[in-house]
Structure formats: C-alpha cells, structure tokens
Design a protein that fits this description.
Blueprint: E1 5-11, E2 16-19, E3 25-38, E4 44-56, H1 58-66, E5 72-80, E6 89-92, E7 98-111, H2 122-126
Parallel strand pairs: 4-7
Antiparallel strand pairs: 1-3, 1-5, 2-3, 3-4, 5-7, 6-7
C-alpha cells in the first residue's frame, strides 16, 4: 500500500526545530494552501487549508536555517492520521468552534522562489491549477 501527498503553499510561521532523545533533528512548521472558486450562487469563495509539517534529519536543519514565515514551499510526504480515529486530528478552538489539523511527515521539502515582485502568489509564479490556456509556460 502507498500514499503520498504533495502540498504547495506558504509557511504560516517560522520553523521550530527540536531534537529527539537520540539526537535526531525534527523541524515543524505550518503550510497554508488556498483555493478560490465561484459557488452556485455566483459568489466567490476563498478556501484555506492548513497542514502541520514535520521534517526529519539533515533536511530538518536546512528547513530551520533557510525557511521563514511567508516563504513558498513544495512538500512531498505522507499524511499522518490521528492514531485513535484514523482521521485528521480534530480540536476545539478557543472560540468554541471545531478545527482539524492535517499532519504531514515530509519526505522532501523544496524551497520555491518568492516571485519577482515579492507580492505575487504561487499561481502567478507557476501558473494556476485550473488548466490555464495554451500559452502557459512550464515553470521548470
């Protein structure tokens, strides 16, 4: 059996590094992805999904050194479900609403360029995921 998830988004916080009792580095950070669409009522809907990423070993040290809040990244890894339910971890926010945490064990983290103007989005930098048009250039 096999599962893999690919996430392209922006860091929501600065990476935090710690070490296991055996001395292995572990770095954690959150990544936000976004999706915009028009619903049946014709209203634009912006949807943000957050992922909590854990990176291990030498790659963890690189992430701590070179990444910071707001940087775009591509993460390849596997979802880590809640061991008790097999689903995303569900929690209660301070305001009483429910939330879910999608936990990812990263196998590979790629640092993406921030864009030429600094204020661009991943979609502007690399083309949107809607299929664009025939004139879209491949970003690599």
């Amino acid at each position: 059996m096999f599962q893999q998830i690919i996430i392209v988004g922006y860091l929501g916080n600065d990476p935090e590094m710690r070490f296991t009792p055996g001395g292995q580095a572990v770095t954690s950070f959150s990544v936000a992805t976004s999706n915009s669409y028009t619903n049946n009522a014709g209203q634009k809907v912006d949807e943000t999904t957050w992922f909590r990423v854990s990176v291990w070993g030498a790659q963890a040290e690189s992430c701590k050194q070179y990444l910071s809040k707001g940087r775009p990244v591509l993460v390849i890894g596997r979802l880590r479900p809640d061991p008790q339910t097999g689903n995303p971890r569900v929690f209660q926010r301070n305001d009483g609403t429910s939330g879910a945490s999608y936990e990812v064990n990263a196998q590979n983290v790629r640092f993406l360029p921030s864009g030429s103007g600094g204020g661009g989005s991943i979609e502007q930098d690399f083309g949107d995921s809607t299929g664009g048009g025939e004139d879209d250039e491949i970003p690599f």
